[in-house]
Write a structure and sequence with these properties.
Organism: Urochloa decumbens
Family: Belongs to the ku80 family.
Strand order of the largest sheet: 7-8-12-15-14-13-11
Number of strands: 17
Enzyme class: hydrolase
Shape: globular
Distance between the termini: 72 Å
GO molecular function, one term: DNA binding
Subcellular location: Nucleus
Length: 685
């Protein structure tokens, strides 16, 4: 077998105890096959069913026994036939014997590959609730040891997923079965996972194996003369959708070797000479810096780059409580001592245990590879192992720089008047709602991260398979098993309906009718919050549970010198007629023009700057981009000689034409908006 090629045999219990989750078994195994068709098209998969009424396997034909075990699909390269075999799983009528199924699956692998090297794996999904047949010789424990020896000899691993619903009585038979499965695990050939819900079953089987690759191998530098050899792996990383590529159907159907790939070439042409192609040596990138573009060559960009040395350095220790959990960024990594290095193992263990006892964490500076253009700062949290054969280690989380943190200040509920705070009845109703939807009740946890698959990925692979079979198929509705992840449990909702009704009774609920372009009131009511102080405090009117803020309505209809931006927002919010918005925009344009005409040498630029910003934002929200674009163009052409510095100020604040990306009704592209001031200057020269 090829180094990266895997052979997998699925051992599926279809007996009566598994009938309730057969659909989930189909889904999880189908997703595994779909991912192999995308990422590992040369992998081979076989399917063995046990608990069937019929018997169909080579061992039964040659030796007898091994009843109710059926080979539904021989070990072959994954194709549509593999997926089809999983969709046709029968509901068995007799209890299954998982030891017989393991022996049959093991025999299939050995017959197929013999002693050749490669990745070979069995996957057992069962309830393990029924008694196993006694072996012809010896005990069941002896049989397990014999099977484990064969698996070790041929380097075959196995995953075992045991599904038992909550409330199932744990009898002597199940205890014996569990003991036998854990005997496999103790021989280091089997990984055993127990789940108690169909949703957990969906995520229990790793449908795509990702090879562990080190992010860093080198020294953890505690000081200039104290360094520890460590390896760093990713502990968590977001699983993304497969990359969609462009393919062509222009190749002749008879060409079996056609790749159907599309090659894209780009040509750069001059604006002055549209027919002339600009060669690479005559092109250069640049950055907008105020109204001008600063060209920077690739050589200059390389020279200005920060090129730190590869390494991980300790900066110091701090209390665990001083590192806020919500500051963790990106993926989590795992620091382990260099394999086989006893001194590194002892050093990591000693430091991790000391940090754990003192409730400390370490702050480190990381450069994962030579030539990396950035430095990462992060926190090491001790991970002290409770298992004898597992080493102590550190979890690593990236910490933000000052530029990465977003601070949002909100008013405290305690600062609101008592009339705006929840009553005891309302608070109790809200508390009951939280308790009702508790995902971690005593003794049980629902939607464990390690057993909860991404429903969007599951749906994508399912639809990809459907699309391959039916090109014109529509996107199906979300399956019931995936809705359990994306929606509250309907059984819980039905049982706790009185609590939900009490929540509605505790609050005064009103219908919130949709208003045409209503977001103006919501978004513009605060635009001047950091530009000018309001004339008067806005009034609070109760609208259902939440209050809605309305701007003051006195003297609306004109823009005055005291607070022009607030007056403009108040006119927009009034909407007493269909022409009121247009009137507000025209009034703001007249006022802003008058301000500029009376401004000389920058003596009063701040106020027209605020007016321009408010006018532009309003025209985007009200979908009136042409009003602003024409106003800016005409104003620039008329006053550029008198207030040139003002337009440079506008350019530095990125107050330019409204583009299509900001307002669909605009005829201005993003490039035109970005280069507006440059083109106007060039035209005037």
């Amino acid at each position: 077998m090829a180094r990266n090629k895997e052979a997998l045999v699925l051992l599926l219990d279809v007996g009566p105890s598994m009938h309730g989750v057969l659909q989930e078994v189909k889904n999880i195994c189908s997703t595994l096959v779909h991912k192999k068709l995308v990422y590992n098209r040369s992998d081979e998969v076989g399917i063995v069913l046990f608990g069937t009424k019929e018997t169909c396997n080579e061992l039964a034909k040659e030796l007898g026994g091994y009843k109710h075990v059926t080979v539904a699909h021989d070990i072959k390269v994954v194709d549509e036939g593999t997926s089809q075999a999983l969709q046709n799983l029968p509901a068995g009528s007799v209890p299954g014997d998982f030891l017989d199924a393991i022996v049959v699956g093991l025999d299939m692998v050995i017959r197929k590959f013999g002693n050749t090297k490669g990745k070979r794996r069995l996957c057992l999904i069962t309830s393990a609730q029924h008694p196993l047949r006694d072996p012809p010789e010896g005990t069941k424990e002896d049989q397990v040891d014999t099977i484990a020896d064969q698996m070790k000899r041929h380097d075959i691993k196995m995953e075992c997923i045991v599904f038992r619903e909550p409330g199932v009585h744990h009898d002597a038979v199940m205890e014996e079965n569990d003991r036998l499965l854990y005997q496999f695990r103790n021989r280091s050939v089997v990984k055993v996972v127990q789940v108690d819900s169909p949703t957990s079953l969906l995520g229990a089987l790793k449908t795509r194996n990702v090879l562990p690759v080190t992010v860093f191998r080198g020294d953890l530098e505690m000081s200039s003369n104290f360094k520890i050899k460590v390896w760093v792996y990713k502990k968590t990383a977001e699983e993304k959708f497969p990359t969609l590529k462009k393919y062509s159907d222009k190749a002749p159907p008879s060409d079996k070797f056609a790749s159907h790939e599309v090659k894209v070439d780009y040509e750069y042409k001059s604006v002055v000479e549209p027919d002339k192609v600009v060669p690479p040596d005559q092109r250069i990138k640049g950055y907008l810096y105020g109204p001008q573009v600063v060209p920077i060559s690739s050589a200059e960009w390389e020279a200005v780059k920060f090129k730190p040395e590869k390494g991980v350095k300790l900066l110091g220790f701090t209390d665990r409580s001083s590192i806020l959990r919500h500051h963790f960024m990106k993926d989590v990594c795992l620091f382990i001592p260099e394999p086989g290095n006893t001194k590194a193992t002892l050093a990591v263990s000693a430091i991790a245990r000391a940090m754990h006892q003192m409730n400390k964490v370490a702050i480190v500076r990381c450069v994962w590879r030579q030539g990396q253009g950035n430095v990462t700062f992060g926190v090491l949290t001790p991970n002290v192992s409770s298992v004898n054969n597992v080493q102590d280690s550190f979890y690593f989380n990236v910490l933000p720089f000052a530029e990465d943190i977003r601070e949002f200040q909100f008013r405290s509920f305690s600062s609101l008047p008592s009339s705006s705070q929840p009553t005891e009845e309302q608070q109790e109703a809200a508390d009951n709602l939280v308790k009702m939807l508790d995902l971690a009740p005593p003794g049980r946890e629902v939607l464990k991260p390690e057993f909860t698959p991404n429903p969007m990925l599951e749906r994508f692979y399912s639809y990809l398979d459907l699309k391959a079979k039916q090109p014109d198929a529509n996107v199906p509705a979300l399956e019931r098993c995936l809705r359990r992840i994306t929606e509250p449990d309907p059984d819980v909702i039905d049982q706790q309906m009185p609590l939900i009704q009490n929540l509605g009774k505790a609050f005064e609920l009103k219908e919130n009718p949709k208003k045409k372009k209503a977001r103006t009131q919501d978004r513009l009511a605060y635009t001047a919050g950091d530009q000018a102080k309001p004339v008067a405090e806005p009034s609070m009117e109760k609208d259902g549970v939440l209050g809605v803020l309305h701007p003051p309505t006195e003297n609306i209809g004109q823009i005055r010198d005291l607070n022009p931006v607030q007056d403009f927002e108040a006119m927009l919010a009034k909407r007493s007629s269909s022409t009121w918005v247009q009137k507000a925009i025209e009034e703001m344009q007249k006022y802003t023009t008058a301000l500029l005409e009376n401004s000389r040498e920058g003596d009063n630029y701040q106020k027209p700057l605020e007016c321009f910003a408010a006018l532009r934002k309003a025209c985007i929200i009200e979908q009136e981009p042409e009003e602003f674009n024409q106003f800016l163009t005409k104003t620039y052409e008329r006053l550029k000689g008198d207030v040139a510095n003002f337009f440079q100020l506008l350019s530095s604040k990125n107050i330019s034409l409204i583009s299509k990306e900001e307002a669909p009704d605009s005829d201005v592209t993003e490039e035109m908006a970005r280069s507006f001031y440059l083109k106007q200057e060039a035209a005037s020269q």
